[in-house]
Amino acid sequence: GAGVSQSPRYKVAKRGQDVALRCDPISGHVSLFWYQQALGQGPEFLTYFQNEAQLDKSGLPSDRFFAERPEGSVSTLKIQRTQQEDSAVYLCASSLGAGAKTDTQYFGPGTRLTVL
Amino acid sequence: DQQVKQNSPSLSVQEGRISILNCDYTNSMFDYFLWYKKYPAEGPTFLISISSIKDKNEDGRFTVFLNKSAKHLSLHIVPSQPGDSAVYFCAALGSGAGSYQLTFGKGTKLSVIP
């Protein structure tokens, strides 16, 4: 079946612009995660949804970052007034269950955001 | 401060030989460890995992070893194949609140030479 998809794959924004990144998880997956991967680093956790509920946003770096999953399926990560330090690959992952360790997190290909 | 460390940025191995990728962690609350494999322009793909109650887990050509006292784990690939060339990330999960948050190392780029 289809995996996790993300769009756009590449986004270039001028500093100060708002951007919206979309994630389509695997159908039926309860859990959805967003991670940020800076150049040369491993992915870092941003936020976690269980269905439509955002249960953890402890990794969001500032209040310019906002995520939603209104119908418990597609999720959008929005970054307001982008800064150069926001340049990174944004990865979305989904898992079947409600966040158990043994639930494999399946990752999408990511959106590469470049802020000029 | 890096809680999961992969100290070798890159590794080259001849086809057919063993590849050993290493990972160290500092957080004693980590109790579940995973390896992910990543090809360019793709997301990380789950490879193999191990719970802290075990010291070894094997899946085909891939074996993960865990040494809890040393806070060290390793991934062995044998025999290595050119298709194994990728970046390998070590990741960890803790217990309690936020136990679904994967903490990743920086990755090791494996090149398998035909």
Walk me through what this model shows:
The complex is a heterodimer of chains A (116) and B (114). By secondary structure, chain A is an all-beta fold. Helices cover 0% and strands 47% of the residues of chain A. Chain A has strands at 5-7, 10-13, 19-24, 31-37, 44-50, 53-56, 65-68, 75-79, 88-95, 106-107, 111-115. Chain B is mainly β. Helices cover 0% and strands 55% of the residues of chain B. In chain B, strands 2, 4, 5, 9, 10 and 11 form a 6-stranded mixed sheet that branches. Chain B has a 5-stranded antiparallel sheet with strand order 1-3-8-7-6, with no helix packed on it. The model of chain B has no long low-confidence stretch (mean pLDDT 96).
Summarize the structure.
With 116 residues, chain A is mainly beta. Chain A is 0% helix and 47% strand. Chain B has strands at 4-5, 10-14, 19-25, 30-38, 45-51, 56-59, 62-67, 72-77, 86-94, 103-104, 108-113.
SSE inventory with pairings:
The complex is a heterodimer of chains A (116) and B (114).
Chain A: E1 5-7, E2 10-13, E3 19-24, E4 31-37, E5 44-50, E6 53-56, E7 65-68, E8 75-79, E9 88-95, E10 106-107, E11 111-115
Chain B: E1 4-5, E2 10-14, E3 19-25, E4 30-38, E5 45-51, E6 56-59, E7 62-67, E8 72-77, E9 86-94, E10 103-104, E11 108-113
Parallel strand pairs in B: 2-11
Antiparallel strand pairs in B: 1-3, 3-8, 4-5, 4-9, 6-7, 7-8, 9-10, 9-11
